[in-house]
Amino acid sequence: MSSFDGLFEYLSENSLNFPVLHHITFPKGIPRDDLVIKAGANAGAHLVDGLGDCILLEALDQGFEFLRNTSFNLLQG
């Protein structure tokens, strides 16, 4: 079980209903393809299952438009 799974289980068991932000930080120099794959693997499955409300991708050496578009595409998935 991932830490996200434990969090969502805890929220459900305790009838806590508030927005959950998936915040993922990437190391400097990560290739764009790796960033997209890792973001999708880390948060994409939960977002598809309706677990979580938004995503924040942080990669200091990547452009804002790329991160915004990638985040939006994950939410649309």
Written account of the structure:
- This protein has 77 residues and is an alpha+beta fold.
- The protein is built from three helices and two strands, in the order αβαβα.
- The chain has helices at residues 3-13, 32-48, 64-76, and strands spanning 21-25, 54-58.
- It has a two-stranded parallel sheet with strand order 1-2.
- It is elongated.
- The chain starts with a helix and ends with a helix.
Low-pLDDT residue intervals, each spanning 5 or more residues: none
Structural class: alpha+beta
H/E element string? Answer: HEHEH
Q: What is the helix content?
A: 40-55%
Distance between the termini: 23 Å
Rg, rounded, reads 13 Å
Main beta sheet strand tally, sense and closure:
2 strands, parallel
What is the residue-mean pLDDT, rounded to a whole number? 87
Number-wise, the strands total 2
What fraction of the residues are assigned to beta strands by DSSP?
5-15%
Q: Count of helices? A: 3
**Oligomeric state of this protein:** single chain
Shape: elongated
The main sheet orders its strands as 1-2
What is the secondary structure topology, with strand pairs?
Elements: H1 3-13, E1 21-25, H2 32-48, E2 54-58, H3 64-76
Parallel strand pairs: 1-2
